[in-house]
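Data card: per-record layout.
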Amino acid sequence: MRILHLTTFLQGGAGRAIVDLALDQRQAGSDVSVVASNTGAPGYGNYDAYVRELEDRGIPVSLVDSMFSRDHASNLAVVGLLDRRFARGEEPDVIHSHAAIPSLVGLLFAGSRRRPTALVHTMHGWGLRKTPDQVETDIALLNLVDRVAVASRHSADTLVALGVGASRIEVVPYGIREGLPPLESRDRLALDAMDRAKAQGAIVAACVGTIGPRKNQTLLVDALARVRSRAKVFAFFAGDGDVEGLRAAVDAAGVGQETWIHGYSPAARSLAAHADLLVLPSLSEGQPIAILEAFCDRLLVAVSDIPELAELVEDGFTGFRFTSGDAASLADVLAHVFTLAPSTHCDIQDRSRSLYLARFATSAMTTAYRHVYDSVRFAPSGANQSPVPSAA
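The structure for this 392-residue chain is written out next.
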């Protein structure tokens, strides 16, 4: 099978899922290629490690502008690249897009060849800053592809409420590989800081993800200041984004001695696995890879009780939940974990690891997508179509 992945950027948890899916598909014998945007923007860009990982395994990656910009000339430049890349009669069997503008590019390219091509779109997360025109455009595009995959039931419900036809939506959870990435020299400094904190009786809470308002790392900073009288907690932050803004919040809260801000690292998963607890205070999510990695690596998790995370973490059973946006609630969870009995700790680890094995292995994701591909490739003509809702 010839599979073409189109994405804005290979970045963050979504990028990790795309890379792992492409690698598994390549290993299974498919002819896989990836196209992403070349030029980044504030908060957006490709992770070089992801691009190298694909290329090292024989998967060609093309970077061209643009599938990020909502600019017709830039979008058509990608269509032109695809037209040159794929000879007539050798088009992809499946175009798998990973955002709305990549879907637009895929639709234009498939239409230009006038031959049946399966178009599958994965919605990794619904942006909260879309304008009304952007929302209308993106929903219309999702109603033109053959299938829309989402990682959680909450995401499916969100799209249906926005106007995407329910019959074209499939829930396909992310899959995570076993094994930890290698550490770089600067990562050793972070490990040393965590070990010093543990030696002084503290638990280490890791917070992994792009630093900014959506992931809401400052809530953990506020919780550190609140929990001091009840527990010793050292917080480790890893991720790209507004690192300086987070440093300012740490200084304002007076918790500089209790934190380590590491910034981006390809080995963030390995660093988090060295902690006692993964904390995710997000205000919105799709299905965060960091939580699934923690399940795989037997790391306790504590998450905000937003629907996307409540669907993933059962409080007291596979992890802990706290009230979204409430630093006092997070502080209570940190204090509870600090005094957690070792047997209870192990029981939760065992249950979350079992959940990973049952639902979130990479093989499960790859198999599920193969079923999605086949359902649209071999469906009777017109069976995948549903009416596009009229503009209000």
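Known properties of this structure: Residues 185-359 form a domain with the Rossmann fold fold (CATH 3.40.50.2000). Confidence is low (pLDDT under 50) at residues 385-392.

See the next section for split statistics.
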